[in-house]
TrEMBL record:
<dbReference type="InterPro" id="IPR017850">
    <property type="entry name" value="Alkaline_phosphatase_core_sf"/>
</dbReference>
<dbReference type="Pfam" id="PF01663">
    <property type="entry name" value="Phosphodiest"/>
</dbReference>
<dbReference type="GO" id="GO:0016787">
    <property type="term" value="F:hydrolase activity"/>
</dbReference>
<dbReference type="InterPro" id="IPR002591">
    <property type="entry name" value="Phosphodiest/P_Trfase"/>
</dbReference>
<protein>
    <submittedName>
        <fullName>Alkaline phosphatase family protein</fullName>
    </submittedName>
</protein>
């Protein structure tokens, strides 16, 4: 706790949230020797698997986790979104998140928050006492508030993210070392500001977990070359969570959560190439690399992960599908996706979700028409440059999963039922903080059980 808090003797409820991006609950459950500290937290409170969101992609997940609402309200659907009424695309940043963050609600209630390394928070907000932007931030110098924070972070070798490009090498040693260095500096910063700041909500995210999973998860699941290094990395993650917990005052509630699960990857599936092969997508010429290059007769196109858009007349600039044909075209595409088979005859897509069933809000005008949720092993890609084959092998051996995200807390008043998802986390944190809110503002429900 901060010095000022110790002096004032505040008894206001406080919460420390630690994000572990992409960590599946089954990993924690099945490896108690690797995660003794998290098992202690579960024994004191509760823990369990939760669902992610549609689509289970970090750029969409963290805005939804931190606001408690779906992408139709946050306005962020993935790593790449398109402009309304245009084929121009952009990478959503913090200012593109249109819903109210949980730390804004805390600040509006006259309380203080320290927010470190949360994805999709660049540029850092000035209404929060301290914020260091996470994934998608161009660097520490521009991603830290107040300005003097960057000097401290530079002094400890802090970096926004691990270098994922190192994971593309056959020898993963340099990548693993880089992931450890990133994790070490993140922990040093977390411990520093847990003690330095007078906060009511501490919100920090470890992102390197997602990076390690992308390149080593199959090694873990199938006893591969880097299984030991994978578990050693997670032994450190658990050790660091234990250190953070020890640094917290006794009256602080700890919450640990991930934004999606993880599983082994067998194939990259290039869906725009598949659409092209099936006659649904074509380009103006052979030199194409963006959505703007599609031909007028295109019927549908895809963004990662598994988002499909009908090229609808009067909605897209050069829409080819009339409104009266929309439902038939969407239905046909849905059936084609469900019948798509991989090289060994396995079904690629587990289910296809209609966009208007899962996206609802003031910013649903750029929502996808369909979202494909893949079976394990099939990582759904997009891109507009073309691919020699629909099914390829990339440098990654791990991929996101919709199910099996993590929620752990030492709060004995919390229950994690089987239908829990990311939308439940924000109202739960507010209840734990005793911050008042209107339940109608959220797509989820608080998991704090009311006293009888």
């Amino acid at each position: 706790m901060g010095l000022f808090d110790r002096l004032r003797g505040s008894d206001a409820a406080r919460v420390a949230f630690v994000g572990i991006d992409g960590v599946p609950y089954s990993l924690i459950r099945d490896e108690p020797e690797t995660f003794p500290n998290l098992h202690d937290v579960i024994d004191e409170g509760t823990g369990g698997p939760i669902d992610s969101i549609v689509p289970p992609e970090s750029s969409a997940c963290w805005p939804s986790l931190t606001t408690g609402v779906n992408p139709g309200e946050t306005g962020v659907y993935g790593f790449q979104d398109r402009e309304v009424g245009s084929y121009e695309t952009y990478v959503p940043m913090g200012r593109d998140v249109q819903a109210t963050r949980v730390w804004d609600r805390v600040t509006d209630a006259g309380r203080d928050a320290t927010v470190l390394n949360v994805p999709v928070t660049f540029p850092p907000q000035r209404n929060v006492q301290r914020m260091v932007s996470g994934f998608l931030s161009p660097g520490v110098d521009k991603g830290a508030h107040p300005e003097d924070v960057s000097s401290y972070l530079d002094s400890i070798g802090y970096r926004i993210d691990a270098n994922a490009k190192l994971g593309h090498k056959a020898d993963k040693t340099e990548f693993i070392d880089n992931a450890h260095e990133t994790l070490d500096a993140r922990q040093e910063a977390f411990l520093h500001y847990v003690e330095e700041d007078d906060w009511d909500l501490f919100f920090g995210v470890f992102m390197a977990t997602d990076r390690v999973n992308h390149f080593l998860f199959k090694d873990y699941e199938e006893g591969g070359e880097y299984e030991r290094e994978f578990l050693e990395f997670y032994e450190k993650v658990d050790e660091y969570i234990g250190e953070l917990r020890d640094a917290l005052a006794d009256d602080v509630t700890l919450v640990v959560a991930s934004d999606h699960g993880f599983t082994s990857e067998d194939y990259e599936v290039h869906l725009n190439q598949w659409l092209e092969d099936e006659g649904w997508l074509s380009y103006e010429d052979d030199d194409h690399d963006s959505l703007e290059d599609i031909h007028d007769d295109t019927k549908a196109y895809s963004f990662i992960p598994g988002r499909f858009y009908v090229n609808l007349e009067d909605r897209e600039p050069r829409g080819s599908v009339p409104e009266h044909e929309y439902e038939d075209v969407r239905s046909e595409l849905r059936e084609k996706l469900l019948s798509l088979e991989g090289p060994e005859g396995r079904q690629v897509v587990d289910r296809v979700v209609d966009g208007d069933r899962v996206f609802d809000g003031a910013h649903d005008e750029i929502a996808p028409d369909l979202v494909a949720i893949p079976n394990h092993g099939f990582d759904l890609k997009a891109g507009f440059s073309g691919s020699e084959d629909v099914f390829t092998h990339g440098p990654r051996n791990g991929m996101h999963s919709f199910e099996n995200a993590t929620l752990v807390t030492d709060d004995p008043d919390v229950e994690v039922p089987g239908n829990t998802d990311l939308y439940d986390i924000a109202p739960t944190l507010l209840d734990q903080l005793d911050v008042q809110y209107d339940a109608r503002d959220f797509d989820g429900d608080s998991l704090v059980q009311a006293d009888d």
